[in-house]
Amino acid sequence: MITINENYLKLQDSYLFSTIAKKVAKFQEENPDKKVIKLGIGDVTLPIAPAVGEAIKRATDEMLKKETFRGYGPEQGYDFLREKIAKQDYEKIGVTIDKDEIFVSDGAKCDTGNIGEIFGTDNIIAITDPVYPVYLDTNIMAGRTGNYDKETDKYEKVVYMPATAENNFTPELPKEKVDMIYLCFPNNPTGTVLNKDELAKWVAYAKENKAIILFDGAYEAFITEENVPHSIYEIEGAKEVAIEFRSLSKTAGFTGVRCAYTVVPKELKAYTNSGEEINLNRLWNRRQCTKFNGVPYITQRAAEAIYSEEGQKQIKENINYYQENASIILEGLKEAGYTVFGGKNAPYIWLKVPNGYTSWEFFDYLLEKANVVGTPGVGFGPSGEGYFRLTAFGSKENTIEAIERIKNLK
Ligand code: MLT
To answer: How far apart are CA 346 and CA 189, in angstroms?
Structure first.
């Protein structure tokens, strides 16, 4: 008899963004005359930069010619891209990363999900609450979380680290000993950041407890303020305790092109049950070589193009556009009397829902009355209850219209 991985039965019914998409599709079907503005999932709306488009065309031409055609590439990514990443994303901020520590992939969602494969299933995981659902769901699938408790909306073995207005969205270090710590800064969903001193505390904790930090830096390109680390490796000693994930999805509008990378420093170690030190760079490399055949050549040339002078200028223009949307949302909501957070160093605005609403009730209210889609905070974890997320990734016109509609509700 074929059996299943029963951990899958511990998952909530549907992935957050699929649930929202279904609800919105139903509303749209019942109200075909209504123009729904979607500021829910963090998906970009501007086209890819011209420099990226040109690179795709050139690479496509190469693939069409016998002399320049390429088949399987290196599983870790082509050197032309890894070298640019090392130089431009790290050397420029004073961090030395060897190209062999960089693993190019098709997305940070896959990497943050797959990385768990190289760690024991007995490890205790710690997640901020609210959190990007992928970290939790993939650990449920792996069997690290135990069962779901409906009362608390929590999994029994997971350490939840609340990040709410009460603690200024700065989660406290766990009181108990944990092994795998997921941090995402600038944060999805709250749009808030940690300064260098705060991040240094996590690095110190990880060192002291022989834990590992899985640091998701997908929104790094949106940082505007000083003293906000662009990489966890800006913190001394972090290379001994942290894996960093970066994505081109939001940085360069690659949500449909698909390219990201993960940094696994050579200093990074984890242990066997008997206490033997194991090099994680080698382990992740082994995993990738077995399960992954690399990102398409055309995509990697597209990614390389964002590091050219033109490419950098063009992607910065797009980021500025989204940052302006974020200001429109922040200021507009403040005027309308909402309490708002984030939006300064991130494309997400996190707001308190009006008294008397749960975050799902507020979702329904906004959809029905303003025809605006956001994401209910509780979908990101129990401490997200009472909050709501809007993204700055819409078009400017739609963003302005959505905020006007919300203001007019008052
Ligand atoms: C989000 O809306 O949280 C993100 O777009 C999801 C993702 O990047 O996978």
So the answer is: 9
Pocket-forming residues, ligand 1, beta carbon under 6 Å? 41-43, 109, 132, 188
Residues 164 and 292 in one domain: yes
pLDDT grade for 14, boundaries at 50, 70 and 90: confident
Q: Are residues 181 and 256 in the same domain?
A: yes
Strands 387-391, 348-352: pairing is antiparallel
Question: Are 27 and 106 in the same domain?
Answer: no
Whether residues 161 and 64 share a domain: the answer is yes
Q: What is the pLDDT of residues 54-67, one digit of tens each?
A: 999 999 999 999 99
Q: Given 292, 307, 322, which residue is the final one in a domain?
A: 307
Number of domains in the chain: 2
Residue 204 and residue 220 share a domain: yes
Q: What is the CATH number of the domain that holds 132?
A: 3.40.640.10
This prediction has a pTM of 0.97
Q: Whole-angstrom Cα distance, residue 29 to residue 27? A: 5
Q: Is 274 exposed, middle or buried (0-12, 13-18, 19+ CB in 10 A)?
A: exposed
- Tell me the CA–centroid distance for residue 372 and ligand 1, in Å: 18
Domain match, 368 and 276 both: no
The residue whose CA is least distant from atom 6 of ligand 1 is: 42
Within 8 A by CB and 6+ apart from 59, the residues are: 297, 298, 301, 302
Q: Which of 385, 381, 402, 386 is nearest to 16 (CA)?
A: 381
What does DSSP say about strands 277-279 and 37-38: parallel, antiparallel, or unpaired?
unpaired
Q: Give percent of the chain above pLDDT 70.
A: 100
Q: Give distance in angstroms: CA of 135 to centre of ligand 1.
A: 12
Q: State in Å: Cα 322 to ligand 1 middle.
A: 15
Nearest ligand 1 atom to the CA of 17 is: 2
Contact between residue 207 and residue 236 where contact means Cβ atoms under 8 Å apart = no
Domain span at residue 334?
13-47+310-409
Residues 178 and 102 in one domain: yes
Two structure tokens written together for 126? 């710690």
Q: pLDDT tens, 313-361? A: 999 999 999 999 999 999 999 999 999 999 999 999 999 999 999 999 9
Domain shared by 274 and 186, yes or no? yes
